[in-house]
Design a protein that fits this description.
Layout (H helix, E strand, L loop, with lengths): L1 H23 L4 E3 L8 H12 L7 E3 L2 H25 L2
Antiparallel strand pairs: 1-2
Length: 90
């Protein structure tokens, strides 16, 4: 049970860290609604949908920095899920 809480905590921390990174590098993203007023809540939603494996919300990367950040978060999410599944099948 302790391992489950650690895994959940890891996901929440990743969501918060990447939301802050996306907000910091907001020039690397574009909004499909073409609304120039983006908030941290918009990037929190983006980070949550990526971490959940759902996909991209209304934002998409427009340069290499944004693509790299999104790829990094997806790789961390996939690695954690594979590691978690491996431990539960021992």
């Amino acid at each position: 049970m302790k391992f489950l809480f650690r895994s959940l905590f890891f996901h929440f921390i990743c969501i918060l860290i990447f939301a802050l990174l996306y907000n910091t590098f907001s020039f690397s993203f574009d909004n499909t609604n073409h609304n120039n007023r983006t908030t941290i809540l918009d990037f929190l939603l983006l980070s949550t949908t990526i971490q959940a494996g759902v996909g991209i919300s209304g934002f998409y990367p427009i340069n290499a920095t944004g693509k790299l950040l999104m790829t990094l978060q997806q790789m961390m999410m996939l690695s954690n899920n594979v590691f978690t599944l491996y431990l539960f099948t021992l």
